[in-house]
Amino acid sequence: MSENMCGSETFDGIPEVPDEVGGMVERAGGIDKIVRGLPSEDVLTEKCQIFAALSSSVRLRIMYILAGADLCPSAIKVLTGMSESRISYHLDILEGAGLVKHGPWRRWRIYSLTEEGRAFMYASERSDANAI
Description:
By secondary structure, the chain is α+β, with helices and mostly antiparallel strands. The protein has two domains: 2-36, no CATH class; 43-131, Winged helix-like DNA-binding domain superfamily/Winged helix DNA-binding domain (Arc Repressor Mutant, subunit A). The chain is 59% helix and 16% strand. The protein contains seven helices and five strands. It has helices at 19-27, 31-36, 41-53, 57-68, 73-80, 84-96, 115-131, and strands at residues 2-3, 9-11, 14-17, 100-105, 108-113. It has a three-stranded antiparallel sheet with strand order 1-2-3. Strands 4-5 form a two-stranded antiparallel ribbon. A hairpin with a 2-residue loop joins strand 2 (9-11) and strand 3 (14-17). It holds the Pfam family HTH_5. GO terms for molecular function: DNA binding; DNA-binding transcription factor activity.
């Protein structure tokens, strides 16, 4: 680290990093270790899909419904009061993000949470409990 004109230090080529921040980076093992710990672009893209899918209260409601029971779109329609086309739209987004899956049962399509969807709901329930 070297001193710059503002009195702050230059840290690995990043100008004006306060001493406290430089110390935090050093305690974390340095910039290289932080960069090596970053997920790949593919993993980041996948996580973005998940966060985008969960950014809708409608989709979160569907996730909570499916956490209670595996259901067909018609049952979800009754529970949410939404049209079947709107339900299908949201289920497609959740499925594309890997949070729900469907399978046939007789002549219906039954939706359920994937392992990743269940993990999210478990984490969500834990954070809800900690907020109380």
